[in-house]
């Protein structure tokens, strides 16, 4: 059966960096091999650099990005805890669902989809929540929120509230400075701007959040206390086996992070900016309207209204079948009225922009 | 940095089938691409063949083998349910931990490690449990239990009790016939006899178990009702996005299963038998004693006592550093007194047997 090759220009996964593919296909190591543990340690260190944090507990969890969200709530929410969630898209919605499954008293702060998080409304939602959760780059809408501002405002008010941030679509594609931004808990995915296949959830926890984690969460698989003994060593200094780490995926992430850091985060961010702006200009020149609020648009993921009279699914199908290009539909109520176009990681390149614009122009013309 | 190549002859991961590596490195597909959904469907169908089941819900979960155990308990145990667990090694122990986190009233049936499960003692443990759980091939001890006998005995007694089986180390290495054996829920890993890197947990559920699943489990990530809408289609027939499936890992599993089925399960099982018996004979000829109870020894994973006066860790380190061969220590209280040697998947070959025996002989001689 012939292999099919796609240009993955949807909301993720994106095409992988060549280094990530090489990492996947490298000879497999065992999860207790000293060579692998060194590679895992270096992966943690590279994640710290990309995320701008000194957090000791910085590691890839063994599941796709969503497992990061689950790990965040199951390890840091106790029944009855007040959790304020800024909802400005699908992933904020999902946070409410996950937090409530673990017994949180969820206080939603609803926004129009496509808008950034309104910091004052989040502050006003509750005087002393145990946790505030927000999404940095909303994959469902293409809008970026000001996490630095949110973190500063929260910390200015009190020392107690923990700040939890979803970095799934921002990591590796834009500037992030978790420590300076006062973020306590963050998770991400590998399949967007990091240019690695889906299958790992980078995760990081500040020391002050670590001290407040749930001692024995309902989950065994995502019990950070147990995982911590493998990743950073236990109280005795030994690295106790927890579960078999997905060693090939970790090697892939390690390699992609090396590629990103060799290029330099500043250059990587600039590459995403240049590609995203070229795409957004091109779409507007074609007469299309962008969905996310102006001034808050992601470069790595562009949301655009489907033109009147155009059948969304038909265009996506033709891009896929005639050009091998995958773009995404809108999320939720915008499934048929919005497209999402990603230029993430290895795809944050001008050649991809021209390819997509040309193909879209051709399909819309006919 | 030079890549390191190992012979992975421990309890897993094992060296991958070449087809699995090719699957990993193939051009990445999106999780909603029709080509990927067809590949996922075929993966389910291949898993059914390897497992001997007609279960519609047969799918790879997005995590390592342990996530299968967690999914089994979180989706099928309600607080207060009586769960009988046959404990004859580390993974039975872990089942007790996981089940109790979800509120089960756990009834343990303890065995000596290395022994198979005693069916009568399991039956006698409780007259009407909601679930009985056992491990088919105990990775921690190298002992095989008679799941066919257990399933038949349970079904002869009542129609209500569900049977949950851990197939992590048996799948792809020995004969399994879940439907004939009356198994309702089973999970496995990819990194043992299937010869795929760690990162997926094959999972299957019978129709009668499906009808009794927990409606809204505490977990979002492992909520089988939600995952089912993506894998088998929802009530409307559509395949709703749940989380981003680890598409590269699924492609790898698909390719390895194809390899295994092309060779034929009968031949694969025979290959594991021949390699395991050759290893066990060779070890005994060297004067070593096998750990697991005679007549119940796995072929794919051999446990052997460390000879008197030999430092276990020193031998393992020398095998690793001088020969590039990884073998495993014992588990739990046998950490320093037992070795575990795996001949799984691509490693179930006579050349690996000779290599290991020769290296071990050399190291023990000095």
TrEMBL record, chains A, B:
Record family assignment: Belongs to the class-V pyridoxal-phosphate-dependent aminotransferase family.
Key word Zinc present: no
Entry GO MF terms: alanine-glyoxylate transaminase activity; L-serine-pyruvate transaminase activity
Matching InterPro entries: Aminotrans_V_dom, Aminotrans_V_PyrdxlP_BS, PyrdxlP-dep_Trfase, PyrdxlP-dep_Trfase_major, PyrdxlP-dep_Trfase_small, SP_NH2Trfase/AEP_transaminase
Aminotransferase class V domain: residues covered: 31-331
UniProt xrefs under PANTHER family: ALANINE--GLYOXYLATE AMINOTRANSFERASE, AMINOTRANSFERASE CLASS V
Binding sites annotated in the UniProt record for substrate: 340
Protein name in the entry: Alanine--glyoxylate aminotransferase
Modified residues (N6-(pyridoxal phosphate)lysine): 192
Gene Ontology biological-process entries: glycine biosynthetic process, by transamination of glyoxylate
Cofactor: pyridoxal 5'-phosphate
Keywords from the named record: Aminotransferase, Pyridoxal phosphate, Transferase
